[in-house]
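Field log, afternoon session.

UNIT: design team B
ACTIVITY: writing a sequence onto a fixed backbone
BACKBONE:
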């Protein structure tokens, strides 16, 4: 990626991402820290990111989820790429399990269609098996072990000259704010310059616009980035 972007020493390199993009932003910072310390990042912006999927897993097992297709995708991906070797019916219920190839792997359907037209439920007990919903089951413990290997709030040392804006909506109904606190503590422990912004940034958008707080909060995040760019360039 560094080669593709033709990043040179002394360039003003800015990274920004929201939600999965925030996770990617922190992943890029980790990659720079571990393999490309010569690349200097002027500032990084990370908003409402799932830096520790275990916190999302714990929240998901307690009841509802605003993005059921994301839950299904994450479980399938970790089972597949970490070679946990579970049958799909071990962690997902029908009709999702039986139709997973058609609904998900075919790439025919976007998230909104998956959630509202095919899955049609936000109750995790309708989607996931009892073994998933039991945090202490052998299956859950194996999944959580895989999640821990991917956590960005531990296991690496950031470059000391990083400057990061870390943002999160306290009302986020998809990525729990616990992710913010874990990442903020991690950065503070490493004495990284961090502007922490955590608060109610979605307001009544969920009720007014019919969207998730997670989606609504993105607008304020990008406004914050624009404000910073205008003030610094």
């Amino acid at each position: 990626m560094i080669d593709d972007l033709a990043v040179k020493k002394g360039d003003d390199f800015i990274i920004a991402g929201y939600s999965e993009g925030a996770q990617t932003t922190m992943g890029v910072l980790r990659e720079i820290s571990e393999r490309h310390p010569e690349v200097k990042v002027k500032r990084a912006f990370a908003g409402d990111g799932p830096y520790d999927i275990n916190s999302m897993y714990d929240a998901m097992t307690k009841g509802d989820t605003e993005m059921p297709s994301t839950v299904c995708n994450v479980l399938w991906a970790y089972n597949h790429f970490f070679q946990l070797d579970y049958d799909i019916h071990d962690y997902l219920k029908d009709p999702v399990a039986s139709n997973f190839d058609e609904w998900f792997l075919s790439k025919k359907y976007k998230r909104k269609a998956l959630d509202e037209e095919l899955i049609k439920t936000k109750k995790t007990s309708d989607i996931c098996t009892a073994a998933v919903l039991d945090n202490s089951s052998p299956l859950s413990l194996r999944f959580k072990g895989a999640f821990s290997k991917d956590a960005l709030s531990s296991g690496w040392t950031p470059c000391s000259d990083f400057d990061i804006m870390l943002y999160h909506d306290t009302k986020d109904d998809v990525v729990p704010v616990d992710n913010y606190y874990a990442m903020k503590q991690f950065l503070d422990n490493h004495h990284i310059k961090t502007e922490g912004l955590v608060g109610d940034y979605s307001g009544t958008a969920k009720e007014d616009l019919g969207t998730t707080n997670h989606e609504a909060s993105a607008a304020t995040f990008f406004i914050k980035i624009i404000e910073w760019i205008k003030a610094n360039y």
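LOG NOTE: Strands lie at 13-18, 41-47, 163-169, 193-199.
NEXT ACTIVITY: expression trials, pending approval
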